[in-house]
Hints:
Largest interface: A-B, 61 and 62 residues
Distance between the termini of chain A: 63 Å
Radius of gyration of chain A: 19 Å
Number of helices of chain A: 10
Oligomer: homodimer
Structural class of chain A: mainly alpha
Low-confidence stretches of chain A: 187-195
Number of domains of chain A: 2
Amino acid sequence: MRRSSTETKAAILDAAKLRFAADGYDRATIRAIAADASIDPAMVMRYFGNKASLFAAAAEFDLELPDLAEVSSDQIGAAIVTHFLERWERDDSLLILLRSGVTDDAAAERMRSIFTAQLVPVAAMASPEPTQGMTRAALAATQILGMALCRFVLAFPPLASMSRAQIVAWLGPTIQHYLTGGEPITSPPGQADDP
Amino acid sequence: MRRSSTETKAAILDAAKLRFAADGYDRATIRAIAADASIDPAMVMRYFGNKASLFAAAAEFDLELPDLAEVSSDQIGAAIVTHFLERWERDDSLLILLRSGVTDDAAAERMRSIFTAQLVPVAAMASPEPTQGMTRAALAATQILGMALCRFVLAFPPLASMSRAQIVAWLGPTIQHYLTGGEPITSPPGQADDP
DNA sequence: GTCTATAATTCGATAGAC
DNA sequence: GTCTATCGAATTATAGAC
Lengths: 195, 195
């Protein structure tokens, strides 16, 4: 079958995203990706040069975070959690980075840069003190990524069968606190406030 | 150099743990593990049969969770967070499973079984309703593993430079709420309580 | 207990015909 | 634009000598 250049490239990229998301960088082979795209492995090299470049193309995406200016200030946590749950199931973008970033340095760096460029500004806007954007974004990331890890990757039984609403109900207040809550007193250590 | 059987086996196992923790299951090669142990690769096969069995031996460990009966009820969250931060840096056990469980089914299953066998009972004891042990343990796991992922594996800058006390101050109340707090109302969906 | 030699795969990448 | 053929490297695993 003969296709146009752009068609072929798009078909390869779609297959690559699925494979990288399902198997991670190492186990996703160019041969398997080519087979999924019903094309010869040599075509993958022709269009993307090498495996690393193919991954870079497959791992490019936008978190598409909501504009917090349109969210009431006490619903920020719930809005963020809801958005990520939907975003996670809409396509495999985040799964690609999670499955590969744990062992591959390039993927980890990509994940860091995405959160710095896209999540930190939103956290800075939500924070009572804009300079805390980095710290608050990182805290939110721990809970968001941890939930994704346990629900979608490790498939912990209670989480896999939990409804979105339940997850929002549990995690919403946590994210709300990380993004907008009072900063914990650091001295004396081990002390915490729970507003 | 000639060593006793138990010495050799222990040396191989130590090297395997380090390699699996640093590189994950796929990238940790038997050749590299053997080189670290200053021994021939064939010896690894001789003592452990195959790579999967070697990994199973290297991934066996105890969370050594504290006895919550000795912790005041309002300090349970802080105690759990403190314990895991220490446990995580003491040896590579959890890192081994995290780096491999994302792509390897056997490692993921091991992680599920460890949390079921070791974390669920503790959560059941902390919960106001013992039957909620599974759900509460899973929620706590999302925050604990998410923190480990972002701090130790992905190395998000703000988290990597945060002190243990700061992390305990931020995450302690979250874990306290997941393990002991009031259950969120599930209807109407999207609604959350924050006691 | 230790090592050499090698089998059997698998993978990324290249060269070149059509 | 597509594919065949193949190279070179790396890996797990086995057989057997010392």
